[in-house]
Amino acid sequence: MKSLVIALAGTALVSVxxxxxxxxxxxxxxxxxxxxxxxxxxxxxxxxxxxxxVATEVDRANRTxxxxxxxxxxxxxxxxxxxxxxxSTSNSPCTAKAPGHVGxxxxxxxxxxGQTNCASLGLGNAFIAEGGNYTFSQGISTQERSGLIxxxxxxxxxxxxxxxLGVGDVLYVEFDRNKYKxxxxxxxxxxxxxxxxxxNVNGPSVGNYKGKDVMLHTGHSLxxxxxxxxxxxxxxxxxxxHLAKRGRTMLTFNFGALHTDKSGTDFYCQWFNKNSGQSxxxxxxxxxxxG
Length: 291
Prior knowledge:
The protein is an alpha+beta fold. Helix content is 17%, strand content 33%. The strands form three sheets. Strands 4, 5, 6, 8, 11 and 12 form a six-stranded antiparallel β-sheet that branches. A five-stranded mixed β-sheet has the order 7-14-13-9-10, with no helix packed on it. Strands 1-2-3 form a three-stranded antiparallel β-sheet, with helices on one face.
């Protein structure tokens, strides 16, 4: 219920109440005998209707997170509608690439690359992607899911190094299942100028994405295989079985933003086993603002 109070110059005070009923009808009650108030009451009613319309649109946008559910691809998380990491180093898979994105890392300094000793873990099948939304069709129904989209295949250089990464990128890699022991490794990141180090808390997020993000739902139009039907958990289970059958295991790294890092800072990172002194993987990425 919205009440608008109109004060007339030195004569009367009129209260106008607009009530929305169960079937959308509106009732306007006005106190006072003055016909000249009709136009003011009509204007007040129109104002209340406008407020209702705006509130409805805001509520709709909140429910859908500002996204359209139509179309063959619902859009990348690099669009401005994704705010999960805005102004933080959140571990959320939603890592939007803002319009003011500072780009990928410059070539890594030789002093860091020379200290990386790559472990022989069968590293391969790597790609760089974005976390975003896609749609799939079943009959005349279209539904939306999240996953890794806009993928491009990449290969390691110097044994296990991937360069040029930035905010919004997701790096996917696979290892030999029998050789790789994930609990033996921790992230190490040092800025190119040596002034800043990042640890497991403040560094890139490790293992944020699961099998369901790689094995998209059957019926999508992005062309990635294999696919599976069912819930997110069932697709993750199906992809785990797919990897196990091939003797492989997966790992992802994704790179959050820091809104105060306006010009961007380049980091050299390695997924390091302190017991062996070897790295499963190394990469360079540029941290920057989310916008």
